[in-house]
Amino acid sequence: MKIATYNVNGVNGRLPVLLRWLEETKPDVACLQELKAPQEKFPLQAINDAGYHAIWHGQKSWNGVAILSRTEIKELKTGLPGDDEDLQSRYIEAFINGIVIGCLYLPNGNPAPGPKFDYKLAWFERLALHAAGLLKHDLPVVLVGDYNVMPTELDVYKPERWVDDALFRPETREAFHHLIAQGWTDAIRKLYPTEKIYTFYDYFRNAYARDAGLRIDHFLLSPQLEGRLVNAAVDRHVRGWEKSSDHCPVWIELED
Q: Engineering a disulfide at 249: which of 6, 47, 64, 205 sits with its beta carbon 3.0 to 4.6 angstroms away?
């Protein structure tokens, strides 16, 4: 089973890129972030024509998450529990082929410190609470998406330049490691513990050509799935396509 994540940075504006990538790589499940489209503007017909079912949680101009699947999707949850006043579309959860899949778009948090950073950390706390609850159900779970965090210095080009950024501040990394400590496995680092791997390249300063990137898109696996992980990679070349997102698609393969 091939599960992918892709921050599309605008699902309608970059629909040709998304469809090209789906046709080329054919993931069984694709989790999308930053749809930047209201609920009624999701391109469902084009997604269906590409061979996928879909559930999505849209928002005008910002945020938005979706899960695409070649097989039936059972939607479990829309929105992250813990704050009824939070209207940002950043989490959606489904049951597919016996696996609970949570697709998330964690807040950026910049500028830090400040209200946006406080929101990021509070969202992280809510995610940790929900993740702990998922583990108690003793089901295979993947929490996947754009976490907006570089967990270690290996995950960022020239880390000394990022020490004050919300994606790399100690509080952010501590929150990520606290989540991992519940019993989750960072799938990419499980297979590639010491390799330089980036999933995001800024549009500025020729970052993609210079390989000056960040690893901020992650797969966290529950203990039931750690032993089923057989492969993982970044579709880095997609970042070089015309009108592509600043993120690369990332995927893992699990034994059935």
A: 6
Domain limits of the chain?
2-254
The verdict on pTM exceeding 0.90 is: yes
Whether residue 146 is annotated as binding a ligand: the answer is: yes
Calculate what percentage of the chain has a pLDDT beyond 70: 100
pLDDT of residue 102: 98
C-beta separation of 153 from 12 below 8 A: no
Q: What is the spatial distance between Cα 208 and Cα 199, in angstroms, rounded to a whole number?
A: 10
The distance in angstroms from the start CA to the end CA of the chain is: 6
> Is 53 considered catalytic here?
no
**Mean pLDDT of all residues belonging to the chain:** 98
Report the alpha-carbon angle 116-67-65, nearest 5. 20
The rounded Cα 14 to chain-centroid distance in angstroms is 17
Query: Is residue 146 annotated as part of the catalytic site, yes or no?
Result: yes
Which of 105, 147, 157, 208 is catalytic? The answer is: 105
- Express each pLDDT in 61-106 by its tens digit: 999 999 999 999 999 999 999 999 999 999 999 999 999 999 999 9
The domain 2-254 is placed in CATH, from the list 3.40.605.10, 3.30.70.270, 3.60.10.10, 3.10.290.10, at 3.60.10.10
Q: Which contiguous run of DSSP H or E holds residue 143? A: strand 141-146
What number of other Cβ atoms are within 10 A of residue 41's Cβ? Answer: 14
Cα(113)–Cα(106) distance, integer angstroms? 17
Residue 156 β-bridge partners? 214
Among 28, 146, 155, 217, which one carries the catalytic annotation? 146
